[in-house]
Automatic annotation (TrEMBL):
Residue ranges of domain O-methyltransferase C-terminal in the record: 114-320
Gene Ontology BP, a term: methylation
Annotated transmembrane regions: none
Name of the protein in its database record: Methyltransferase
Species annotation: Streptomyces roseoviridis
Pfam families: Dimerisation (PF08100), Methyltransf_2 (PF00891)
Length: 341
């Protein structure tokens, strides 16, 4: 009986690299959990010094630090370690561009859900229990410190979107509401560049205190906060309702519900602004595929979608849709649905 032999012309390296890449992310997350980069911001340190300060075993700490050097997150010289520039900018707690809040969100919320990807592919159901119960954000917003850290990171990552959209033509409108606008970073940027606008944020009631603290830091622009559940409570009346990174969290029926509720809330001649990656279709980018799978495991029916699909939902809700080119809007697409006057 003939025995098949492996094809030695094909290297398994790409497959093994994927597994190793997963482990590499664990190195980063462990280092952030122990505030290693924040500790090193105080000055260079040896393995033994860091292990003692952080309460870690020296043997494991040595390998952790070596791994972080290979990942380009640390530098070493003379037996001491220092932060690499990228770590000094984004991984030191207390600094303006700190991304630890988002990494904590990944570790506490997304990664456990991703562990159930195989089940979600079979059942179509999320692995995030908060989403199963109703809203995927409920467990996150139950912890005020985690909420602030997450929103710090989200504001940093979405700042280019806010800057790009604040510079489009808002002259035909006098008011807008950012639906799902969290603590108002996007709305603040829009009003700052368009002071004729009266702006507001509509989001879950637990975010009101975060909104008020953030507005105190940024300076008063007259923004107001409306607490509510956009599936249960009426949306505020305005010329424009903005749905940014909202619709992809929900299934098609929920999206249609939100767009129809938006149509009812808008003044005649008003518009709904929707921005999302819109990376759906038969051949999404890798970014789109990962975003779509994240929605599968974490949200209630959410997935990425195409601009053409959104045009169809907008028409069904009564809008006249248009995809708008926006300078500086790189990984997102803006679609505007207009309500006839």
């Amino acid at each position: 009986m003939a025995v098949d032999t492996p094809d030695t012309s094909v290297n398994p390296g790409p497959i093994m690299g994927l597994i190793l890449g997963s482990w590499q992310s664990r190195i980063l997350l462990a280092a952030v959990e122990y505030d290693l980069f924040t500790e090193l911001a105080e000055g260079p340190a040896t393995t033994a010094e860091l292990a003692e300060r952080l309460g870690l075993v020296e043997r494991g700490t040595n390998d952790l630090l070596a791994g972080l050097v290979h990942l380009g997150l640390l530098e070493t010289s003379g037996g001491k370690f220092t932060n690499a520039p990228v770590s000094d900018a984004f991984l030191v707690k207390g600094r303006p561009a700190y991304l630890g809040g988002y990494l904590h969100f990944c570790e506490q919320e997304l990664n456990p859900a991703w562990n159930g990807l195989a089940d979600s592919l079979r059942t179509g159901k999320p692995q995030n229990q908060a989403a199963v119960a109703g809203n995927p954000y409920d467990s996150l917003y139950a912890d005020a410190e985690a909420t602030d850290g997450f929103l710090d990171s989200m504001d940093l990552l979405s700042a280019p979107i806010a800057q790009a959209l604040s510079r489009i033509d808002w002259s035909g409108y006098t008011s807008f509401v950012d639906v799902g606008g969290a603590r108002g970073n996007f709305a603040h940027e829009v009003v700052k560049h368009n002071p004729h606008l009266k702006g507001a944020v509509f989001d879950l009631p637990p975010l009101q205190s975060a909104f008020e603290r953030h507005m105190d830091r940024l300076g008063d622009t007259g923004l107001t906060f409306h607490g509510g559940d956009f599936f249960k409570d009426d949306l505020p009346k305005a010329d424009v309702l903005v749905f940014g990174h909202v619709l992809h969290n929900w299934g098609v029926e929920d999206r249609l519900t939100l767009l129809k509720r938006a149509y009812d809330a808008l003044e005649p001649g008003g518009a709904v602004f929707v921005y999302d990656p819109m990376a759906g279709g038969e051949q999404p980018s890798m970014h789109g595929a990962l975003a779509g799978l994240t929605m599968l495991v974490w949200s209630r029916g959410g997935h990425e979608y195409s601009a053409d699909a959104l045009h169809g939902w907008l028409r069904e809700a009564g809008f006249e849709p248009e995809t708008v080119e926006v300078d500086g809007l790189h990984e997102d697409v803006l679609v505007i649905g207009r309500k006839r006057a």
